[in-house]
Structures are given as structure tokens and as C-alpha cells.
Amino acid sequence: MKQIRWFKPFFFLLVLFASFHLFYDVIYENHLGEGTDSDVLYPYLFAKDVWNGKVSGWNLPPSTTLFPDGMICILLYPLTGSVYSFHLVYGFFVFLLPFIFAKSLGLSNSLSTLTSLGFLILAGLDPNQLGQFYFPSFHGMTFILAAWALVEIERWNDENKEFPKQIRFLFLMTMIWISEYWFFVNLAPFLFLYGLVRLRWKIIIPIGSTLLGFFIAKLITKGFRTFGIGTIGTESFELIPKLKILLTLFFQNPIQSFDGILISSTKNPFINVWWERYLVFGFLFFIFSIFHISKKNIGKDFLFFLSPFFTMVFLYGFQIEPNIRYLYILPFGTLYFLFRSIELFSWFRKIIPVLLLVGLFVFYLSIHSDLITKIKTGESRRTNRLTCLEAFNPHIVGAATYWPIKYIYAFSNQKWTLVPFTKDGTYYPWVANTSWDGESKNLNFSSFVWGVTDSKENLETWKGVELVKECEGWYFFQRNPDQ
């Protein structure tokens, strides 16, 4: 019966995703058609190399996102036949996450479903920003990690003889340390405070598991390096020194610290708008809650409401520029508190979700042709780039800046070798496999007779090259043999 209860919302979410799939297609084409977001393609190409037995040489990003993103991608690769189908299936998994997280926070099935649908629509309307959520390695999976941790905390006192909770939690924390540092910036403070309130002194065990998981993760990442897979350890970020500076500044000059956090939070206009929406719907919910008889989950909701504030403190302290991919909690929280407010009024609970769903579908139909146009524009730009590429000989090794390389490797049917360089002509295999470059990685930039860059300014910096073709934001160049 439990499996059936979960299957019904899963099936309904699948129907909704299929019905509103053009929003996802707009997101996909914005990043891989209109733009050439090569970071999106790291998990796809990593999974491809895993199946081809060529993982040695990979340099992984600081947050490796191997769990669960990488594992899902490795499983998906042989089951999907194209870059699009691969990301479409992955996108559906991510589509489920707002539902799962909202459900773990206590929202009803119907309103949790609308949270997932609402997030997809918002992302489809602003694909360049919120659309990042639906791609692997862009930190969307923090939602399911948080939901898992939340369930473990809530069931900590339950008797469970099947599998020790301490082992499950240790495994979860180890995987998070290996894969998703942003979890500790985004949602760990909320989970810590909630665990402290719920478990009291027993919180020592989850904290101990978290610390032990950190050291196990360090050992595992060292193991990766023995297999030729490069990782970036936490020591590279100088987190402890930065944290000490942050605490010192807070104690010595709290007003200056507060002003710095406020400026950092509002500097980005897009994030500032989402802060305004989040605060409006959050405060409205708590005002409605005052006059509501039932105070169920109100403490949890308040602690959750504080999450993005903690995130901004950490981002400011670690000197990281705020980006919506670190603050998905703002659009999610806006939807969550909106629907929590609706849930407080019993006469709204059944009729509002139906009316909203009908209204959203009518809205979808009204912009259907605009969505199709955006999708076709992205498809056309990708086709044009690859057509321009075919003017060059794939058997001759070329040079390229960061963005075009993984894009070409993913979408072109021919086998190319493009060696990555910075605008200064320095070899730069960032989030890439050095084995792709072979012996060519030892050559100087001036040795390559042709290449491609996404910045025309680079051509002015590089001596002895001339532009031969400009194509959809890409600039193909050849080296003048006389220089």
C-alpha cells in the first residue's frame, strides 16, 4: 500500500511534466542552443567516459556532484540515445525534487505537486537563471539530500532494526562531503537547528556522523586521485581562515558585517527581486498562522524560513558572489510559503489547487507559440555552429577556449581534438579529461593552426591569428603561417 501511495503522485507528476514539457525544452535550448553552457555537459561526458573506460585524466569541479547527480547520469547514459533525451530524463528527476522536499516539510500532496510545477514554469520563464536547477551538477540535488536528512532526523527516535540509522546518516554525510559542499551553505544550518530542537542532546550523534563523514570523504577522494581522477580538497578554499575572519569581524564590528551582508544580498537585481517575494510570502504565512488554531509544523517552518539568511552570511564570509544556484531556496520558499498559507484555510485546500492547475495550463497554451519559437531559435543556433565547425578538418588538432570544447564533443558526430587554453594562451583543462588532449596538451598555444573561441577580444590578444568565420557567438580562427 505504501508503494501505491507514492506511485500515484509520481505518475501524476510524470503526466504534468509531459504536459508542460515545453518549459523544460526552453530551458534546455537556452543553455545548449541559445548559449553554449559547457558546465552543463560535464556529467554527460563524464558518464560517457565511465562507460568507455576512460575516466583517468578527469579533473572534477570543487563540488564533484558525483552523488546523486553523477550516479544517475552514469545509469542514464546507456539508456538514452542523445544529449537531449539524456537531459530530458534527468530533468524529470529534478522536477520531482521540489515535490519531495515540500512533502518532507509537511505540505500536502496536491500543494507539493503545484510547488514542483510552479518551479518548472518559473524556470521556463527565466531559463538563464532558474533553468540551471534542472541540469546535473548545478546543485538542484541539494533538495533531495535535505529531504533525506530531514526524514532521518524526524525518525531518529523510532525503533528500526532493519538498518541502523547511524550508518545511513554517516553514508549520507560522507556522500555530501564528496559531492555537494553547497548543502552545508544552503540547508545544513536549518537541519542543525531543527535537529537540535527535536533531538536535543542526541544531536551529538548526527554531528559526530557529519564530522566522521568528512574524514571518510577525504580518504575516498584521495582514492580517486590514485585512479587518475583529479579533485579539489576543502583546504584549497581556505575555509577555516575565512571563517575565523568572519567571526572576528562579527564580534568586532557587527554593524559593518550586517551592512556588508545586506549589500551582498541586494546587489544582484534578480536575487533582490526573489528576496522581496520570499519575504512577502513568508511574512504573510506567519501572520496568517497567528490567527490559525493549529500550529502544526510552525516551528519547523520558522527555522526553514531562516535558511537563506544563513546562506547569505556564509556566502559573504567565504567571499563568494551570490548566484541563484546557491539560493534556489528563495523561489522554492516563495512557492512553499504561498501554498502553506493556502493550506491554513480549509475551504481553499481542495478548490484552489484545481483552479491553479487549470489556470496554469491555460497560461501554458497562451504562450505555446512563443515557447516553440524560442526552442526553434536554440535548435537553429546549435545547428549553425556545428555546420560552421565542419569547414575544418577533424584530423587536425585545434585550440579552443573553455566553453566550446565540451559542447563540440557532446553534439558533433565527428571526433575532434580541441585543446583548452585561456585567453593568455595557458593550458587549462578545467572540469575536463586531460586524456582527450593526448600529447597535444604539451604543445604551446602558438603550435595550433586553427581553433575556436567564444570571445572576439581574444583574437586581438593572440598574435598571428586571424578570424575566418563568425558563427552564433563563436569565432573560428586560423594561424597566419607568416607570423
Automatic annotation (TrEMBL):
Keyword Transmembrane attached: yes
Superkingdom of origin: Bacteria
Source species: Leptospira bouyouniensis
Protein name: DUF2079 domain-containing protein
Transmembrane segments: 7-24, 74-100, 107-125, 171-197, 203-224, 275-294, 301-318, 351-367
Alphabetic keyword roster: Membrane, Transmembrane, Transmembrane helix
